[in-house]
Amino acid sequence: MIEPAEGSSQIEDEDSDEELELTRIATQLKRAPESATFVSKLYHGIQFFVALLGMACAGTLYAFGTYEEPLKVQMGLSQEGIQIVGYLGDAGLYLFGPVFGRLTDLLGPRLSNTLAAVNLYLGYGLMYGAISLGINSPIIVGLLFCLAGAGSGGLYISVLTTQVHLFDPAHRGLVVGILVSLYGLSAFIFTSFYALLFPKGPVEQFLLFMSGVTGGIAILAAFFSPSFQQFSSVNHQLQYNQLYDDEDSTPARRHESSRIEEGDAADGRVRVAPETSYSSGRSASYHPIRAQDEGVRSFTAVGWFVHLTTDRRFWISFWVLALGAGSGLVFINNTASIVKALNSKGGHNIHKESVVMMFSLMNCLGRAGAGFGSDAVPIRKAWWLVLQTGLMAGLYGMLAFASNPTTVVVGALGIGAAYGGLWAIFPLLVTDLFGMDSFGSTWGYMLLGPGGGGLCFNLLAGWFYDNAAELNEESDVVRSLECYGQDCYQSTFGFLSIACLVALILAFQLIPHTQIGRSDSRVMH
What we know:
By secondary structure, the chain is mostly helical. The protein is built from 22 helices and 2 strands.
């Protein structure tokens, strides 16, 4: 006689209790009166509007290229020195992603948004104070910029995680596209403020302005965020939808109809039988980690990261984002220097503000277009990554041989759209591959990729630039290393083209694991 495994009855009881709780919550939601439903929809509309404002303020690091050059001159820095300042801001944005993601998953978005507001107020505010006092250390100013970057990242991941949970999966691509398009448009918005309100500087006044605006919007986002109890209820409802895809399903019927391949429980994944997966627009290899079975919320932040690293698809996705987005960050952080270098040799007069604004506008359109297209176009989502990384590889190859800033304008348009598209597709990819229960934590860890890629690529760009630089003897104010002509960034662009080609090759491997557009994107277990 074979005895049941030890603890099996306890596990079954826990599963039964969870199913009853999910059923109870769903029943309560269905019984809500129409008046309450109308008020709820109105409130969610206000929440979404505030979320858009939050995203527009979370992307202010993209405006760094606007004031990079005057800040470099004012502080008397080399190109490598200003790269350190810019990168430390990016480091705050990406390296603190797991912290804010975990906070949002466990304690709800209200706390995360409040902490983001504090970081934004202090980061930009203290940068204003340091520069006003004549502190010219790139490390000190960069660390303060890192604080502002952490606030930006916290606001971004908290807002995104909340809205991804609140909206129906069938429209998730469009919602993510709209949200991240405002994030991409942030540089356009704040560059316009800079040109209109601070045309002659000083730079520190603009930093004080950003401190007040971004911190204030983050406080507003915290006020309109769901409470911890509301956010937990949304998570329960998502789990209910994932377990029972239609209203007539019951736990018993769903249990009978589900076909779980033998041995999958051992590796922590649930696979839908091939005929079922194809009927819903998924490949046979589509099998997200079943977060609720794994007890994700019982994992520590480090424990969940270790859990993710056992999945090969995590590392492929990680490196595609690291190489693709890291390459885009180089263009963003060096826009002013690129335009200046090419302007000086050819007698052209392309304004850096115009290039920054065009990049931001295409960044916005690329995000919105990719988000909408991922829902509407019947191709697997990873094909969008192939298109975007391929476009970036080709454009960086073209820029390597650019001799006038007009070519940079073309590059800004194409790279901006492709770079923005990456940021619209990847959150959807995370939900496809790893489920929704711990989206904030998973997406936060994924952001470590661009953080590392941005560091390596920006430092390399600064090193290439300074090696090609000539000593600027003409300035009566400050002696700094300046570079003129296409040699300044030729090596950088060539290297970035190769990096994007590697990302392209890796992206092909994700195609079988992602869903097709126009399909029901709810996870079946």
